[in-house]
User: Fold this.
Amino acid sequence: MSDVRRPVATGGCQCGAVRYALLSGPEGSVCHCRMCQKAVGGPFAALARLPKDDVVWTRGRPAAFRSSASGLREFCRDCGTPLTFAYDDARHMEVTIGSLDRPGGTPPQRVFGVESRLAWVADLVPGRLPEMRSDELPARDRTSRQHPDHETPADWKPL
Assistant:
C-alpha cells in the first residue's frame, strides 16, 4: 500500500510561474475586512482553508508579505497574483479561491469581516445589475498571456 497522497485540487498564479496542489478538500469563505480588501485589490477576498501541510508547491515559490504581526500573505513575484494567507501559529492556511483551477468547486461556507462589507456588494446578485459576457465587449487583441487552468509542462510559456 502506498502512502502517496494525490492532489484533490490544483491552482496557481496568472502567469504560471507558481503552481500548487492541494492534498485535501478546502473549505471556502469570504472575508470583507479592510486588510483582505487591500490584499486582493477587491471588495472582498474569497479564500479556501485547509491544513498547511496539505499545500504543496509544484512549480516555483511565491514571494511573501507580512501583512500583520502574525499573518503572512504569499503572491507571485512575477505577475502579482495573491495566492495565500496564513497566521504564523495556525495549523491551517488559506489559498485564494480565484487562483484555483476550478474555483467553482469551493463555494463559501462562511463570511468574515462583515463590519467592512461594502454596501453595494448586495447589488451583485444576478439579475440586479445589467450583465454582459466577456466576448460581448468591444473587439480588442485578445491574445492571452494567462496560464491555462490545468497543469502544463515546466517549460510552458505564454503565447
About this structure: The chain is about 5% helix and 30% strand. The mean pLDDT is 92.
